[in-house]
TrEMBL record:
Keywords: Signal, Transport. PANTHER family: CHITOPORIN. This is OprD family outer membrane porin. Transmembrane segments: none annotated. It holds the Pfam family OprD. GO terms for molecular function: porin activity. Residues 1-23 form the signal peptide. It comes from Acinetobacter genomosp. 15BJ. GO terms for cellular component: membrane. Belongs to the outer membrane porin (Opr) (TC 1.B.25) family.
Length: 424
């Protein structure tokens, strides 16, 4: 895309054209060794999906160590550095892992007993602009690595991030490989090329806005916008308003699972969500409304467009993204630190979706989910920052949505024990 190429070039030369309004990150570089970082995250993960209506259950139980070793930047006008990221894992016990994204499979369908993945990257920085090339975990609304399985999804390519103007962050990049969480193949999702660009701007302490775009060759074009406003009420409470939206148009070769049109050249979708959160002390309550428009659902992940690329509120086990679907959510969260148990939190939510179009079946399919998560993070001592997270979803859908093979009636458990270790 011409616009994407122009923005990439603009980000790369930004430091030479704009006078920084605040301290330069590169001017504070101490050196390759002095600013080096090394971390290992040990994770024991368990995922179980208790399926209904005669569908086979899936479950996986495994152990991994996720490593990131990264140098600092050399000193001077332009700083250089390098690093590696990766994971080594082994399964625990027997596994019925098909369909849950946890453990890679051999061609015969059997699960690997142990496996390893990862890669290296190099980086350069001038002023407040950093360019990274190699294996990366992405956190962009239009291209986000899945981090909700045992190990993360990896992309390979180049990403530039620039913060030359106070409050403004520009992003541009191009990626050519996508390795999902349960894949050994470094390009298991067969990505041709994905060009991303975007900007985030912080107007003040209360108002933020963002725009991101994606052009995945022969697959899709996607655009995302977000506006977030915080309204303080008093020192212990406030309201947060958030508006997010995606617009996607699929190319003829792009895949969708929930289209109601046979015209492969005219598949498009716009999905938007509006939420309001009231917080007071350790409590918060969120109300959210989400709506789909177009002739297909908001299908993501299968086009090498990031299996976590859904920065919308009504996303748990189900994302409530069916064709023409409307959904509403009520969420409650409490931080028990306010009651003398720091590190303990509980989130509960109920989401209901309706008016889902299923081709040749109905225009009024429904789904609902009751979600609960308890998490405890150790606050001090030798196990500081270790965490245990228990998550449960009760999901049900109408028969006509079951036929469409979206998720199907499911009771799901996810249990993660994370133990981070800082090497240096």
């Amino acid at each position: 895309m011409p616009k994407a190429n122009k923005l990439t070039l603009a980000v790369l030369i930004n430091a030479a054209l704009i006078t920084s309004t605040y301290a330069s990150e590169q001017s504070e570089a101490k050196g390759l060794v002095e600013d080096a970082k090394g971390d290992i995250l040990f994770r024991t993960g368990y995922l179980n999906r208790d399926k209904k209506n005669g569908v086979k259950d899936t479950s996986s139980y495994a152990q991994t160590a996720m490593v990131k070793l990264e140098t600092g930047f050399t000193q001077g006008l332009v700083g250089f550095g390098a690093g590696v990221i990766g994971d080594g894992s082994f399964k625990l016990g027997s596994n019925n892992n098909s369909g849950n994204g946890m453990i890679p499979k051999r061609p015969d369908g059997s699960a690997y007993d142990h496996w390893a993945r990862g890669g290296g990257f190099v980086k350069a920085r001038i002023s407040n602009t950093t360019v990274t090339y190699g294996t990366q975990i992405l956190d962009l609304p239009v291209l986000a690595s899945n981090t909700t399985r045992l190990v993360p999804e990896y992309f390979e390519g180049v990403l530039a991030t620039s913060r030359e103007i106070n409050g403004l962050e520009l992003t541009a990049g191009k990626f050519t490989k996508d390795q999902y969480s349960d894949q050994i193949n470094r390009d298991g999702r067969k990505l041709d090329s994905a060009v991303v660009w975007g900007a985030k701007y912080k107007f003040d302490d209360n108002l933020n806005a963002a725009y991101f775009g994606l052009d995945s060759k022969d697959k899709l074009d996607r655009h995302y916008i977000n506006v977030n406003y915080k309204q303080p009420l008093d020192k212990n409470s406030g309201l947060t308003y958030d508006l997010s939206a995606y617009h996607t148009k699929w190319d003829e070769k792009g895949s969708t699972y929930s289209s109601t049109t046979d015209d492969l050249s005219n598949r498009k979708n716009t999905i938007w969500a509006l939420s309001s959160t009231y917080n007071t002390g350790p409590h918060s309550v969120m109300l959210a409304y989400q709506q789909n428009n177009g002739n297909t659902g908001y299908d993501y992940g299968e086009n090498a467009d990031g299996a976590q690329s859904i920065y919308l509120p009504n996303s748990y086990l189900s994302d409530f993204i069916g064709n023409s679907e409307k959904s509403a959510q009520l969420q409650y969260n409490v931080d028990f630190g306010g009651y003398g148990v720091p590190g303990l939190s509980w989130t509960t939510a109920y989401v209901y979706g309706w008016d889902i179009k299923v081709k040749n079946l109905t225009d009024n399919a429904k789904e609902r989910e009751f979600f609960n998560q308890v998490k405890y993070t150790v606050q001090s001592g030798f196990a500081k920052d270790a965490s245990l997270r228990l998550r449960h979803s009760y999901y049900r859908a109408s028969d006509d949505y079951q036929t469409n093979a979206y998720i199907g009636d499911t009771n799901e458990w996810r249990i993660w024990l994370d133990i981070p270790v800082k090497l240096f």
